[in-house]
Amino acid sequence: MNSARHLITICCLSVVMIALGTAGYMAVEGWDVLDALYMTIITVTTVGYSEVRSLSPLGRLYTICLIFSGFGFFVYVATAVVQFVVEGQVQTLLGRRRLDRQIRRLNGHYIICGYGRIGRVLCKKLRSRPLDLVVIEKDGEQIPVMEEDGVLYLHGDAANETLLMRAGIDRASGLVAALATDTDNVFLVLTARQLNADLKIIARAGHEGARVKLKAAGADRVESPYAMGAASMAQRILRPTVTSFLDLAFADRRKDIQMEEIPVSPASALANVMLRDSGIRQNYKLIIIAIKKSDGSMFFNPSFETVILPGETVIAVGEIANLQKLEKVLNPQGSARV
């Protein structure tokens, strides 16, 4: 039984005991409800006030029984109330310290600033992969939601330098600015860029005019959910088959096919090997759609004579199990992302 339910139970039993004590005085002494209730309260709590009326021998015997039974129960109730308050505070403190310890151990993680509609969906998508996340949220009403979702979080202003340092911004791989307003996101990006010059920053823009400001503040990429939503609807009208394929390739619940990007490590056995000699199509039943070069350029539909070079990123489509096998070969040091 949890603490809250236990407290409610003993409070209900306290009401029952007082009601029974009151009924007993009414039956033994013939008193009215108020006098009987008053006598029960001062007897159970051992306050020590004088009786409201003279007691009969039977009434005194009943009072003795009520003192022995009621006082012990009253002490138990008081102890339970104090324990409930103290335990709640201790559990909150210990829970916060546990979260802080987990955050301090992170390295190469992502900081999500804002746990509103966009931030929560983003975290859910990212946590479908083994990515470490820390959420910073200012709204205290979101704390139960974050605890229910099981995310590591910090409560406070995301643009606060101390809070960002607690989130491990100096060790983080990236930060997502998904706060409610463009002004807050601009200030957050400025602060984050000053704390970590190498941090990859993605910012949310509510208005088209905020893109330039967020870029100037230091954001690597700026995304507008409204523009992306409109573009997606347009593509569903203009290219319904293509969008259906992309939905299939990126659907988290589909296990038969998925599109994935896999970096090529210098330690890979397929580094500096031609596609025709790699056995990717024969051994893994995968289709190589494109290769992202180390300079950022994209090479679509590579030929069988294309050489897989270290530092490139291979974009492949196929079954998840086969993608995992290929990642272990292409990126043996950082596999298990798929």
TrEMBL record:
Just give the chief location class. membrane
Pfam families referenced in this protein's UniProt entry, alphabetically? Ion_trans_2 (PF07885), TrkA_C (PF02080), TrkA_N (PF02254)
Q: What organism is listed for this UniProt entry? A: Desulfonema ishimotonii
What are the transmembrane regions? 7-27, 33-49, 61-86
| GO BP: any one term | potassium ion transport
Which Gene3D superfamilies does the record associate with it?
1.10.287.70, NAD(P)-binding Rossmann-like Domain, Regulator of K+ conductance, C-terminal domain
Q: Which protein are we looking at?
A: Potassium transporter TrkA
UniProt KW keywords: Membrane, Transmembrane, Transmembrane helix
The superkingdom of the source organism is Bacteria
Show the GO MF annotations: monoatomic cation transmembrane transporter activity
**Organism taxonomic ancestry:** Bacteria, Pseudomonadati, Thermodesulfobacteriota, Desulfobacteria, Desulfobacterales
Cellular localization per UniProt = Cell membrane
Please report the stretch or stretches of sequence annotated as the RCK N-terminal domain: 107-223
GO terms for cellular component? plasma membrane
Domain RCK C-terminal residues, every copy? 243-332
Bilayer disposition of the protein:
Multi-pass membrane protein
